[in-house]
């Protein structure tokens, strides 16, 4: 739903027959307005050109940082370290940052920190690979004063069930609610963290602002609404909508006066300029639907809705972790509000850690301090509990408990780094002899012979033997080339050893497929076939593992870099294999190779290795006619169904964009690490 005159970002993708600029006509169609058309310009690129690059510009949450200390400036952390390329054997080699059109950094620094005055800034990150191909990502970020923080302030209260209605209408006294002589303190403080005033409960837990309080609670939001002509109708009225799907009751005050709501809507004649508002939601049954304030003109500017944290008393939402080892060194994060303001900087502030006051503005153990977060490296302590609170000129916060224990893992500090072996993505392994293993390493596994095995994007596997904790036997490195020789062009992106096999004669299971087999782009009329080329193989015969056997072939694989990934085994010896998705959100796109999904893509596959009737090849039937497909084609795989006679190879879990590795735990749980979801 888009409110009137609101501005929202929109990505439009299209398939181009050739490189160049294209004029596109976009139609907007809806049930309650006339169809509208808009002309836009799009650019098509040749295969292998910058669309393989993926710049990722990470800006602060909400698109702003707060000048909590009131000096008129703040440091901005601009992050580009997640930027990458999908082109095999290529890497990002240069990151260039521009702010308001001026280059501020260009080189190998992936992330930069710069100090800026209060204001709004346009940031562009341009990445460059080894062939000087470039692509950019752009975003907007603001440095805002502490009395004009974007969005609305938010307070969660948990009154007794018998007093829910009473406190819904109770006035605020600082951050507390007061009904007669009874004061109710909040359980959680936060803000809407964005333009406007909207809270979207977590879709999985229904929690609000990451709190643990979600049922039979009062959410109170307040702030300043800066009214302009664009928010008014032809009668000079501002229409205000308070969404309240999960709320039993809703109340709205503007400038201290209650406004009557009819189905969440109210109208008020308000002069241009700032107006104070306050909203109460009484939430009894949590649902994953937004709670928000909207005007008929929408919220277009970052300061249309704002709030002040200038005189917040300190308040702790949570501490994580809540336990640390008695030897100290654990980093704990104190989250909340009111930790930093100009008065705290002038008159002092402290973290009360047990009986020890810690000046978190100067103490070297404090790794980060802002208005909402303190990161503290705990000192050694005695077994037992202590209280943690925060003190500023505006008071002392609520207390949280922390426990020192000898029964939790001690903190780890990595003190040095030892480079055992180096090689680059284009050259052979840097040693006097050896095969040309091209490409990057993809996975590592410890073998039953205590060697470290490493797979390669070029289809090879190396095995290294350790002499000591920081030295390897480089001369006796083993090079396993079986997959390279039998499947030229295949990349190994997953492998593992059968835990039920003979450790003196181990069996290695290898997942492999070619990457970018058909160019990594959309298909043409001349090139309209994409075979199922993914293979799960078994290798035997150490140390070179020359004996090869196909376990399952005919598996789907993308026309990009989503492959057949990390293998694990359960307690019965079944094998689990993740297969990456062909798309980002279910619809074929040229940037990911132009293939649709099939039943076995974007899923974790279970292979029953001990099942004597297990199928060795995936076979398919037409979804509608149920006829067997003689020559399966991934271009139309979304019209297929798995043949009913396929046995012992089936999807165990669906919906993973690109699960890269799996772990089966001793408790019988299967865990997967996924890139995107």
TrEMBL record:
Transmembrane segments: none annotated. It holds the Pfam family TIG. Residues 314-404 form the IPT/TIG domain. This is IPT/TIG domain-containing protein.
């Amino acid at each position: 739903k888009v409110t009137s005159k609101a501005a929202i970002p929109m990505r439009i993708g299209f398939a181009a027959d050739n490189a160049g600029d294209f004029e596109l006509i976009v139609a907007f169609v809806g049930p309650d307005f006339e169809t509208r058309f808009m002309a836009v310009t799009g650019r098509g690129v040749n295969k292998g050109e910058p669309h393989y690059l993926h710049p990722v510009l990470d800006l602060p949450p909400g698109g702003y940082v707060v000048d909590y200390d009131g000096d008129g400036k703040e440091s901005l952390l601009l992050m580009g370290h997640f930027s990458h390329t999908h082109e095999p054997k290529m890497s990002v080699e240069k990151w260039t940052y521009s702010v308001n059109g001026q280059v501020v950094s260009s080189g190998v620094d992936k992330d930069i920190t710069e100090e800026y005055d209060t204001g709004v800034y346009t940031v562009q990150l341009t990445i460059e690979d080894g062939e000087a191909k470039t692509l950019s990502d752009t975003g907007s970020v603001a440095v805002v004063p502490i009395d004009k923080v974007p969005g609305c302030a938010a307070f969660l209260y948990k009154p007794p069930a018998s007093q829910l209605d009473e406190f819904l209408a109770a006035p605020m006294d600082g951050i507390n609610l007061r009904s007669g002589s009874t004061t109710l303190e909040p359980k959680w403080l936060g803000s809407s963290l964005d333009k406007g005033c909207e809270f979207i409960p977590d879709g999985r837990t229904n929690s609000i602002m990451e709190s643990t309080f979600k049922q039979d609670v009062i959410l109170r939001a307040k702030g300043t609404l800066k009214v302009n002509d664009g928010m008014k109708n032809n009668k000079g009225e501002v229409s205000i909508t308070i969404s309240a799907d999960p709320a039993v009751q809703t109340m709205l005050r503007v400038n201290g006066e209650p406004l009557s709501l009819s189905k969440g809507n109210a109208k008020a004649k308000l002069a241009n300029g700032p107006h104070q508002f306050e909203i109460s939601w009484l939430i009894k049954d949590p649902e994953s639907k937004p709670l928000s304030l909207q005007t008929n003109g929408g919220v277009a500017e970052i300061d249309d809705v704002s709030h002040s944290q200038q005189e917040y008393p300190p308040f702790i939402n949570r501490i994580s972790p809540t336990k640390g080892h008695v030897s100290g060194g654990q980093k704990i994060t104190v989250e909340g509000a009111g930790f930093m303001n100009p008065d705290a900087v002038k008159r002092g502030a402290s973290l009360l850690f047990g009986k020890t006051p810690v000046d978190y503005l100067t103490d070297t153990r404090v790794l980060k301090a802002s208005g909402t977060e303190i990161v503290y490296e705990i000192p050694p302590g005695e077994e037992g509990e202590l209280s943690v609170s925060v003190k500023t000129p505006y008071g002392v916060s609520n207390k949280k408990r922390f426990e020192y224990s000898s029964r939790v893992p001690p903190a780890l500090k990595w003190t040095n780094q030892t480079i055992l072996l180096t090689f680059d993505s284009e050259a052979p392994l840097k040693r006097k002899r050896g095969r040309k293993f091209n490409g990057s390493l993809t996975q590592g596994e410890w073998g039953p012979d205590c060697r470290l095995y490493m797979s390669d994007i070029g289809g090879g596997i190396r095995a290294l033997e350790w002499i000591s904790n920081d030295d390897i036997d480089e001369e006796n490195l083993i090079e396993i080339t079986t997959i390279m020789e039998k499947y030229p062009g295949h990349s190994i992106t997953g492998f593992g050893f059968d835990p039920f096999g003979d450790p003196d004669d181990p069996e290695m299971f290898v997942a492999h497929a070619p990457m970018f087999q058909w160019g990594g782009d959309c298909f043409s009329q001349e090139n309209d076939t994409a075979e199922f080329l993914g293979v799960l193989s078994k290798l035997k015969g150490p140390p070179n593992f020359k004996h090869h056997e196909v376990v399952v072939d005919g598996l789907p694989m993308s026309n990009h870099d989503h492959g057949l990934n990390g293998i694990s085994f359960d307690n019965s010896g079944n094998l689990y294999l993740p297969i990456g998705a062909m798309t980002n959100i279910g619809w074929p796109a040229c940037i990911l190779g132009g293939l649709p999904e099939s039943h076995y893509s974007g899923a974790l596959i279970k292979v029953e290795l001990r099942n004597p009737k297990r199928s060795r090849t995936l076979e398919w039937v037409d979804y509608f006619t149920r006829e067997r497909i003689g020559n399966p084609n991934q271009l139309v795989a979304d019209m297929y169904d798995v043949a009913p006679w396929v046995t012992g190879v089936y999807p165990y879990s669906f919906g993973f964009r690109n699960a890269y590795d799996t772990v089966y735990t001793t408790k019988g749980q299967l865990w997967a690490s996924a890139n995107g979801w």
